Amino acid sequence: MTAMGKATQAIMTESDLGRTLLTIARSAIGAELGLRSSADASHAALAQPAATFVTLKLDDELRGCIGSLKPMRPLAVDVRENAIAAAFRDPRFPPLAVVEFEATSVEVSLLSADERVEVRDEEDLLAQLRPGVDGLVIEYGHHRATFLPQVWETLAEPREFIAALKHKAGLGAGFWAEDIRIARYAVEKFKEAQAQQRPAQAA
């Protein structure tokens, strides 16, 4: 395992890291809305480079999801910026409104380093997939898309999962090419309790 891999593994075993990351994400969104932020979060791992996704849900429906696939900036910065982007810059949704904030739940996914999946064809890929475990990245030319492992919760069948991922990348469901690139990664997922169980933040 590389030094970065060991560092990522060490980060992911910290029991209080999830609470810290969720605090950072919610506080960042609240600050953008002009609400009082929570107390500053601190953790030894926050300065280490890491890749994260921040997912927002409202009434159990997706309300925004933005993230990073490569560890290019410190963990605290990555979570903060992805939280703001998920709330206000996901092109699929309008910017999050103040009236939605308290009812919106936050989830932070901490990504492991990705690894190339060597495949002969799509059937070989389907045979190698680990449903419920693998986050997947597909790349072909300028086409690129990823699904977090959480997507297996709604697309549990591997062939359906791959077809939907190709569609997201702008490729046809039946598309395949020898130079298509597939990579996978795992995540450590941290999720808030239900929104109504959280104390409200004062304006």
Quick rundown:
The chain has 203 residues and is an alpha+beta fold. Helix content is 31%, strand content 24%.
Secondary structure elements and pairings:
Layout: H1 3-12, H2 17-32, E1 49-50, E2 52-58, E3 61-67, E4 73-74, H3 75-88, H4 98-101, E5 104-111, E6 115-116, H5 122-128, E7 135-140, E8 143-147, H6 158-168, E9 181-185, E10 187-191
Could you walk me through the main structural features you see in this protein, from its secondary elements to its overall organization?
The chain is an alpha+beta fold and 203 residues long. It folds into two domains: 3-112 and 187-197, Hypothetical protein ph0010, domain 1 (Glycoprotein, Type 4 Pilin, 2-Layer Sandwich); 115-185, 2-Layer Sandwich (Dna Ligase, domain 1), CATH 3.30.1490. The chain is 31% helix and 24% strand. The chain has six helices and ten strands. The protein has helices at residues 3-12, 17-32, 75-88, 98-101, 122-128, 158-168; strands at residues 49-50, 52-58, 61-67, 73-74, 104-111, 115-116, 135-140, 143-147, 181-185, 187-191. The strands form three sheets. A four-stranded antiparallel β-sheet has the order 3-2-5-10, covered by helices on one side. Strands 6-9-7-8 form a four-stranded antiparallel β-sheet, covered by helices on one side. The protein has a two-stranded antiparallel ribbon with strand order 1-4. Helix 2 crosses helix 3 (75-88).
Give the helices and strands as they follow along the chain: HHEEEEHHEEHEEHEE
The count of domains is: 2
Question: Helix tally?
Answer: 6
Rg is: 18 Å
Biggest β-sheet description: 4 strands, antiparallel
Averaged pLDDT:
88
| Terminus-to-terminus distance | 46 Å
Strand numbers in spatial order across the main sheet: 3-2-5-10
Tell me, briefly, the overall form.
globular
- Text of the CATH class of the largest domain: Alpha Beta
Uncertain stretches of 5 or more adjacent residues: 1-14, 195-203
Give the structural class. Answer: alpha+beta
Strand content: 15-25%
The total of beta strands comes to: 10
